[in-house]
Write a structure and sequence with these properties.
Blueprint lengths: L11 E7 L6 H14 L7 E7 L7 H10 L7 E4 L3 H11 L17 E4 L5 E5 L6 H28 L1
Parallel strand pairs: 1-2, 2-3
Antiparallel strand pairs: 1-4, 4-5
Helix pairs in contact: 1-4
Length: about 160
């Protein structure tokens, strides 16, 4: 089904880009996003959006199989595709990802973007690590950013 950012209005959103045939960065990135998503299974205000940057190859059936491998429905994780130009414009101009590769025909980035309920970027965090301990620390940073946003929203609701 067609989605827009408005579908995530009441949620903190963790966004990453990938392509299904990627043999190196994307599987590791998606495993780390999945590790974070598993911790938020019972929280409706935190969602995950994984967008392909290769819509010509990553058809809906390809994305469905990829999402099934990560049990995406169970963990409130949406895998999405769309028009390549619109995706690339969004990635470059709104998410501020892959800026060092601008101008190439194919972008790649191993970072996740934390977006608040007002659609503002609140963090752009790396996921690439050399060791398991570094990987755990990077996952912890993503969780910390999400928890800080949850705390900020809780404080705002208490002020009312």
């Amino acid at each position: 089904k067609k989605i827009t950012l408005d579908d995530f209005d009441s949620s903190i959103l963790v966004v990453n880009i990938f392509f299904a045939s990627c043999p190196t960065i994307c599987p590791s990135l998606n495993k780390q996003v999945q590790s974070v998503a598993e911790g938020y299974i019972n929280e409706n205000n935190v969602k995950f959006l994984t967008v392909t940057i290769d819509p010509e190859s990553d058809s809906i059936p390809v994305l469905a199989a990829y999402a099934k491998a990560y049990k995406a429905d169970l963990f409130k994780r949406t895998f999405a595709t769309g028009n390549k130009k619109e995706i690339y414009d969004w990635v470059y101009n709104d998410l501020k990802l892959a800026t060092e590769q601008r101008g190439s025909d194919f972008i790649h980035d191993d970072r996740v973007v934390i977006i608040d309920k007002e659609h503002r970027i609140r963090g752009i965090l790396p996921t690439r690590a050399k060791t398991n301990s570094e990987r755990i620390e990077l996952i912890r940073r993503i969780i910390d950013d999400i928890e800080n946003l949850k705390y900020e929203y809780r404080e705002k609701s208490l002020d009312k």
